[in-house]
Amino acid sequence: MRREKNVRGAGAVCLAITCAIVAWPAPAGAQDQPTYARDVAPIIQGNCQVCHQPGSIAPMSLMTYEAVKRYAPRIREKVTARLMPPWHIDRSVGIQEFKNDMALTDEELETLVAWLDSDMPLGDEADMPPPAVFPDPSAWQFEETFGRPPDLIVPSEPYTLAAKTQDKWFTPTVPTGLTEERWVKAIEIRPSWPDGPKIVHHALAFLIQQEDYDEMSAETASLASSSRAMGGAGLFMEWAVGKVGEIFPDGAGKLMLPGSRIRWEVHYHAIGREVKDSYVELGIWLYPEGYVPQNRTRLRMFNATGDGLDIPPGRVAVTQDTYTLRWPARLENFQPHMHMRGKAMSMSAIYPDGQKELLSQVTNFQWNWHVNYIYEDHAAPLLPAGTTLVFTAWHDNTPENPNNPDHTQWVGWGDRTVDEMAHAWVDVTYLTDEQYAAAVAEREARAAEQNENREGTNR
Ligand code: HEC
């Protein structure tokens, strides 16, 4: 941080000339104090305003100096606990390279907190960055990435949710309208704007199509049914607050067949006023006609419920499941799913030679944020056949869990948010042995090149 650097600078001066002239430690002069205009506004613009603006999903707007000052104590609390921005993966373990990383850097956090702990000066208004321009929150977010609207849009049917009612599950089946075989490059999924995100707890979209027998699909299906939960070969996409969608790496994607249909499973919960004709829709970007990617990506649900969820009142419960990969695979993402007692979930690999690696862990799970952590292509776990994946879930049913509605209740598996679940959604791209060997060689070459560059700069 700026101030720290100056302090160190003062020390260096102190050694070089005489300590009588330069005070140690140097008091932070007005020049070194972070100001809103110069130091804080860019952080708030770049990391908060996309959601904290009128009409977006957050409860209050952080568009002005005055607003940020007004909410200072709450902002301090949320950013230091790393609850805001909503990026709850453990930054001290596992893979840290993600396509959609939302976290503040350590430096940004330090600057923001230093400012919040000071008398929060505005500073020189001339330093203020121009207002940030945001994509329309009601528009398709991937439209900018691809330079065109989705090639195919598949909405669920409209549903009207009463002001007060128990949770509802709505399961309409709708045609995709596709008349030829096509491969999918990206899928965005979103509830209707602006009330949809407030009442949709989560939504699943299953792709129903007639497919010839395929060993990998069969395995995906049998795994899903043996772990007695939804999922399976046909699961196309899942949505919960915090998720935009998925973009598959070049050369990988999902297959859609003519005449296919989407079976929706939308979990609604009421917000105290009626919401009319709400729906969820899929925006699908396709690979060019006739293009067949080398690999097919499958969304898989990995349970971490072990022998079943049995969460006694006042206790922390740990459950675990393991899965051994029959083919080499690349894992594209990690998205834990639990409810109000969810505390943490990890995904580890035990390689065929016995070595273990913690791939990712969410240590501070927040049940109202189902963030999908999407690995950078060069960082996505690349696993040989015979690797065992270990999923571990922790549920905290003690009074220390601030999200716990009642720590005197026994809790078991169930659909309602007061019941529990424990699984991770992971997009798995199976590779042939040759593709796996080539991918490993590419990673090794990349690592060697980076080492060389590092040595080069050290010399
Ligand atoms: C992806 C959208 C998103 C981003 C990015 C985001 N927030 Fe939030 N924020 C929300 C939502 C939604 C809530 C309300 C639900 C919750 O608390 O989880 C919230 C809640 C909060 C609260 C608590 C409000 C209260 O009622 O007490 C604070 C404070 C906050 N955010 C600050 C920030 C700051 C500061 C940043 C940037 C450093 C930020 N948020 C980034 C969406 C976001």
Tell me what the structure shows.
The protein has helices at residues 2-16, 36-47, 65-70, 72-80, 106-117, 143-146, 196-199, 215-226, 433-458; strands at 152-155, 159-161, 168-170, 173-175, 182-191, 200-208, 235-240, 245-247, 252-256, 261-268, 275-278, 280-286, 295-303, 310-311, 316-324, 329-331, 333-338, 342-350, 356-362, 373-374, 382-383, 388-396, 411-412, 422-430. It is α+β, with helices and mostly antiparallel strands and 459 residues long. It has four domains: 1-30; 33-127, no CATH class; 149-297, Jelly Rolls; 304-459, Jelly Rolls (Sandwich), CATH 2.60.120. Strands 1, 5, 8, 9, 12, 13, 16, 17, 20, 21 and 24 form an eleven-stranded mixed β-sheet that branches. A hairpin with a 5-residue loop joins strand 18 and strand 19 (356-362). Helix 2 (36-47) crosses helix 5 (106-117) and helix 4 runs antiparallel to helix 5. The radius of gyration is 25 Å and the shape is globular. The relative contact order is 0.13. Residues 1-30 and 224-233 have low confidence and may be disordered. It binds heme C.
Query: How many independent structural domains?
Result: 4
Q: Structural class of the secondary structure composition?
A: alpha+beta
Q: What is the helix tally?
A: 9
CATH level-1 class of the largest domain: Mainly Beta
What is the average per-residue confidence, as pLDDT, rounded to a whole number? 86
CATH architectural grouping of the largest domain: Sandwich
Sequence stretches where pLDDT stays below 50 over 5 or more residues: 1-30, 224-233
Helix content: 10-25%
| Largest sheet geometry | 11 strands, mixed
Described by the principal axes of the CA atoms, the overall outline is globular
